[in-house]
From TrEMBL:
Domain of life, source organism: Eukaryota
Keyword presence, Metal-binding: yes
Name by which UniProt lists this protein: ADP-ribosylation factor-like protein 15
Keyword entries, A-Z: GTP-binding, Magnesium, Metal-binding, Nucleotide-binding
One example GO MF annotation: GTPase activity
Length: 147
């Protein structure tokens, strides 16, 4: 009986085969410096929030979900890096735009201009966009309507 039970378990494990592959989607994550892009991706990957360092160039993270994997290219948001964002757009299937809802009026205007530029870019204009108004927990945060 023990042998028969073990054989059934062995057969069930071996004959079942690997699970079907999950579809993968390539996304680009953009926003000004300090908007929270790195924190967002770290949280989605269940990484510790203590060791988060702002992205100075770009990074790629695979964010696993039950039915899919998101390969997210996070692009640094510093002034001298934003001009290179478009070099990383090719092959993207969606866009995450993160903005700091508690930022200054000037930074919000810069973020608005960068968002409009991305929305009009030929490689992005037909893709789905997620616009995330981050830092809603701060006292100076603007509402969705204000953003």
């Amino acid at each position: 009986v023990c042998f028969a039970l073990s054989w059934q378990c062995f057969r069930a494990l071996c004959c079942k085969g690997p699970p079907p592959p999950r579809p993968e989607y390539d996304l680009v994550c953009i926003g000004l410096s300090g908007s929270g892009k790195t924190s967002l991706l770290s949280q989605l990957c269940s990484e510790s929030p203590e060791n988060i360092v702002s992205t100075t160039g770009f990074s790629i993270k695979a964010v696993p979900f039950q039915n899919a994997i998101l390969n997210v290219k996070e692009l640094g948001g510093a002034d001298n890096i934003r001009k290179y964002w478009s070099r990383y757009y090719q092959g993207s299937q969606g866009v995450i735009f993160v903005l700091d809802s508690a930022s200054s009026e000037d930074d919000l205007e810069t973020a608005r201009n960068e968002l409009h530029s991305a929305l009009q870019h030929p490689q992005l204009c037909t893709l789905p966009f997620l616009i995330l108004a981050n830092h809603q927990d701060k006292p100076a945060a603007r509402s969705v309507q204000e953003v």
